[in-house]
Design brief:
Chain A is 11% helix and 56% strand. By secondary structure, chain A is mainly β. Chain A has one domain: Porin. In chain B, strands 1, 4, 5, 6, 7, 8, 9, 10 and 11 form a nine-stranded antiparallel β-sheet that branches. The chains are: A mainly beta, B mainly beta.
Chain lengths: 243, 185
Amino acid sequence: MVRPRRPLAVALSAAALLGLAGLAPRGARAEPPAADAPTADVPAVAAPADALPAEASEIPSPWRLGLELGFGFPLLDDTDLGDQLIRFGYELSEPGFHGAVTFDRAFFSWLRVGGTLVVDTVGTERRGIRDPVETRLTRVTALAYAEATFCIEGHCERDFGIQFGLRLGAGAGPTVWTLRGEATTGAHVVLEPALLWDLMAEHFGVGLRIGYGFVWQSGLGPLDVGTPFIWSPTLAFRVLARW
Amino acid sequence: MVTTNRLLLGLLLVAALALTAAGCPCNNGRPVLAYDGFDSTCTGSPCGWQVEAGQVASVATLHPGERGLHLASGAVLSLEVAGRDIGSSEEAVEALLRCDAGTTVRFSLALTHEGASDTIISATADAPAADARLFTRFEGPLLDDAGAEASGGTPERVRLELVGPGTCDVDELFFYRGPTAFCDG
């Protein structure tokens, strides 16, 4: 069966790659140089932070808190877990809810390190001769990440403006699978590269994150069905606050 | 050119909707003679079923919240379905089950003809999947010993019979009596 989310996920990937164009490293101003400025001595990359004036090199607000809301696409179809859900009559085509709280700190002008607590949940429903039955998979993940950020536009030395980020995270957590009010539990592991676009003001920002997670799921239930590492993309909008 | 393409796409959509509406006046479901999801039991055995032989127990299948029947030791059980004749003769069975290697389940339906002796039509589930942990969905026609459909009659009872030395779990069972093809009729 052709499922609509795969083209969507591929489209997200293409959009993300298109977004890579026009990057400038953080720490360098994105504005074009003045017409009378000498060009021969302009470095190709950002000057090191310690080469900037003290005021400019200071990271104004190293701590940052974020809240994410979005959609996840648990592509379970070609796994034992997905196979059994389908055979039992459950539809797997629904995108799942994704929510996260992130907390990180800038250690350099181009590097943030932090952690995030993520909740992903997807319900699948069986319709048939009986009353509809819903089963729900909920994953709670504690994930640590490192994020390289690049300034696209704005006052990059002050960390204002449009930023692009590359994030690599790894985490794990419990999985809860419920059906008819009964729950069974397992564990999962997540490896997630992600692309981020943020519009930052002094204390607040908004952004978009596309995650390309790979999720391994331990065996669940009497059948001990799980998944190998499967691609599970996420699209999330986020609001950020820093101090 | 763009306008022409849009017009053609619009016509195609209207035609598709018209075909959907006009081409399928029939019921695309199957008349169900008997169904059980085995999610509840009555004094240890599935409600309404009579255990004729062997051992039958309720067991968690896909999930602790999803129950099925565990058949062991040559289990045989039957369910009376008299009076539920729907008037067709394309009986079939569909079951969600898993079995040990070398073991399967035979599903049968007994019919009476004007009070005369039974005609038995049956189907035997396919061999278990390569991974015996996992459930597979079996579906097949109910045929007599000569491989023919029943030529009529009144359904009397359905029966499950464990065949082989191992065990089987059955999560869901349909006995159909009626057209099996989409829009057939």
